[in-house]
Amino acid sequence: MALTMTSALDLLGRHHLLREVIQGGDWSLDAPNQDGEPAEFKTLTYDTRQVEQGSLLFCKGNFKPEYLDGCDQAGMAAYVAETDLSERCQAPGIIVSDVRKAMSLLAAAHYGYPQDDLTLVGITGTKGKTTTAYFLQSMLNQLSGGRAALLSSVDNCLDGQHYRESELTTPESLDLFRMMRQAVDAGMRYMVMEVSSQAYKVDRVYGLTFDLGAFLNVSPDHISPIEHPTFEDYLFCKRQLTYNSRKLVLGADCAHADLIRQDAAAAGTPLTTFGMDRTEAGSRPRQDADFLVRLGERHEDGPADSYLIGPASGPMTAINPSMDGDFNALNACAALAMVQALGLKPDQEALKAMEEVRIAGRMEHFASGNRVAYVDYAHNQASVKALLDFVDEQFGNRNPAVTLVSGSAGDKAIDRRQGIVQAAQNRVDRLIITGDDEGTEGADRICRQMLGYVTNPDLDVSIILDRTQAITTAIQEGAGDGTGFQVILVIGKGEERWIKVGHQQIPYEGDDRIVARLLGTRSHDLGATGTPRG
Ligand SMILES: CC(=O)N[C@H]1[C@@H](OP(=O)(O)OP(=O)(O)OC[C@H]2O[C@@H](n3ccc(=O)[nH]c3=O)[C@H](O)[C@@H]2O)O[C@H](CO)[C@@H](O)[C@@H]1O[C@H](C)C(=O)N[C@@H](C)C(=O)N[C@H](CCC(=O)O)C(=O)O
Ligand SMILES: Nc1ncnc2c1ncn2[C@@H]1O[C@H](COP(=O)(O)OP(=O)(O)OP(=O)(O)O)[C@@H](O)[C@H]1O
């Protein structure tokens, strides 16, 4: 469907978003007079640097009027904004009460409502969104002959095969609808996407109904001046997925599950639940979740523990995910519950597809002599706790000396600094606090703040600002006397090849590559599911 000035105004009017159209001194509710057939907008953009002949520009966020200089000359057809910017340009201004909502509605129309041709799955949760999304995509690809697209915080995949690094966890609505169109044109039948709390906060998914939503878990995170003012606001934004999904899969042990159940009842959204079953083998499984995962046989020194996964009513199937950790088995269980909620029957091959999934920078495992290292993306209290639970379960009987290398990002999610220290300080032997994406705050300040949260006097703790040096120290002079078994955990950056300093991304070797180089083991350079990026 071509979007013209007339159809855009009509759509905005129907959604009560249109205030008026301003061109020069003329104010009206109608489209400015045009000769002949109304011209369709050629492109839509929210960046003046992308404006070309026939563009419709959205002025959102911290947009500055001076960005409009030169847009007339570039051929801008019109702009959409919440204020009159006619002093800066000749093109008509569509003045709306909410530019982000307007952008989502107009983008959907411009790209011909691609969501109608996709089975759309949205996944939210504080932890496990990316992993669960990859697990689900792998099963859907297996069941549909490779017709599952993916939008994640690591990579986007629009044709079931090629993965490209993504910028945001959930894209801006304009980019989202464009990518959906590309996916439909590439023959995709499914799209699996992560839905961040921020997506609801700033209307990136406004007007979208998901065929299936998943709410995995929630714990305090993303509280900062540019994200959420409070945990209540963070959770409230996430809860919106329930009201915008036709069905919902919910973690049975999710905090505030009762509230989310109330949401689902209020919205008339049917629920399927999943959870970890920790009852003894052979005893009656837990009864309060529809899908369960439980520990299978333990293999000492084996590649990974195996799990049993399936509907609570049985039968269970053994799986052996290549990504370590009970939390990843739980993510696999969430993905299985989602496939079933979509009305599909996952066969053995589909479950096997999950076993092949590897995600760059998530639970990357390295070993040499008496040292084992993991590079992981844990970067808040809940994920550090989950990672240390894994270390206890997997290596506890070998009495390891555990070294943790962690920093925390600047400018956002400020509560993580305390959360990481709290989760770790009584469970590791050595903590090396180091630089992360410091942004405009400076790594020194963030590291000192983290150090200030340490209350355990027995903890061997130090700040080594340079991340490469911090990892080198951890590997070469880990905790303990160096003779016993050592576990080294390097967390928070995954496979990222840059560190954000100020507003710049400074090239960085990468945690995984540094560990591999120092331990003399092989590093993987994969985008996802064993597929090189490209
Ligand atoms: C708070 C927030 O949502 N910020 C996002 C938002 O910023 P904004 O709209 O204020 O944009 P801005 O960069 O200040 O600039 C204002 C506008 O002027 C435009 N511009 C700029 C310069 C110019 O010359 N001409 C011009 O038109 C820009 O394109 C933009 O549209 O739009 C930008 C892109 O249009 C995003 O990059 C930016 O995300 C920032 C980088 C960010 O850090 N976002 C985080 C908080 C975020 O969204 N995270 C979530 C959750 C992650 C998770 O759970 O792991 C996510 O979904 O990624
Ligand atoms: N279900 C889970 N529960 C707790 N921790 C988890 C879970 N799944 C993954 N993690 C931990 O969180 C880290 C990030 O996992 P993942 O990328 O799948 O989550 P995410 O929700 O996409 O995170 P983010 O929003 O921070 O990008 C992992 O490296 C792991 O340490």
From TrEMBL:
Pathway: Cell wall biogenesis; peptidoglycan biosynthesis. The modification N6-carboxylysine is found at K238. GO terms for biological process: cell division; cell wall organization; peptidoglycan biosynthetic process; regulation of cell shape. Signal peptide: none annotated. Residues 123-338 form the Mur ligase central domain. The keyword Cell cycle applies. GO terms for cellular component: cytoplasm. Its EC number is 6.3.2.-. It is found in: Cytoplasm. InterPro entries: Folylpolyglutamate_synth_CS (IPR018109), Mur-like_cat_sf (IPR036565), Mur_ligase_C (IPR004101), Mur_ligase_C_dom_sf (IPR036615), Mur_ligase_cen (IPR013221), UDP-N-AcMur-Glu-dNH2Pim_ligase (IPR005761). Its cofactor is Mg(2+). UDP-N-acetyl-alpha-D-muramoyl-L-alanyl-D-glutamate binds at T48, T169, T170, S196, R204. Residues 361-494 form the Mur ligase C-terminal domain. ATP binds at G125, T126, K127, G128, K129, T130, T131. One of its GO terms (molecular function) is ATP binding. Carboxylation is probably crucial for Mg(2+) binding and, consequently, for the gamma-phosphate positioning of ATP. Keywords: ATP-binding, Cell cycle, Cell division, Cell shape, Cell wall biogenesis/degradation, Cytoplasm, Ligase, Magnesium, Nucleotide-binding, Peptidoglycan synthesis. The keyword Cell cycle applies. Belongs to the MurCDEF family. MurE subfamily. Catalyzes the addition of an amino acid to the nucleotide precursor UDP-N-acetylmuramoyl-L-alanyl-D-glutamate (UMAG) in the biosynthesis of bacterial cell-wall peptidoglycan. HAMAP family: MurE. This is UDP-N-acetylmuramyl-tripeptide synthetase. It comes from Bifidobacterium [indicum] DSM 20214 = LMG 11587. The lineage of its organism: Bacteria, Bacillati, Actinomycetota, Actinomycetes, Bifidobacteriales.
